[in-house]
Design a protein that fits this description.
This protein has 133 residues and is of the alpha/beta class. It is globular, with a radius of gyration of 15 Å. The two termini are 29 Å apart.
Length: 133
Amino acid sequence: MTDTPAKTVWPIITYSDARAAVNFLVTAFGFAEKVMVPDADGAVAHGELAWPEGGGVMIHTEGVGDPVFGGRQVGQASVYVVTDDPHRVLAAAQAAGAEIIRELRDEDYGSTGFSAKDPEGNIFSFGTYRGEA
């Protein structure tokens, strides 16, 4: 029997330098590189980074591939990532020099988390809140 990944949401993020973004997201936040498909010039046409606790993000280089996605502006994404250990993720992000824009804090709705920017201005928030679904 083949393991089928759980149904999840995978946001798509546009980068001017998707390869540099991969290095940052892996080092600073702990994503794992899974798929990198280059275009004819070597730019990332499609990339997948898995989140170890489930789900992930898809990335691509600005102006590459399908214009519906490749034409999106850089630095406009905001992604919330569920984690059981925001303290660990924060420590890794700080060690990698990530810009922390919201310090780790406990929220009145029961989550503990923080927010940081990647080098191209996208916001990644990490917290324990799993939603009400």
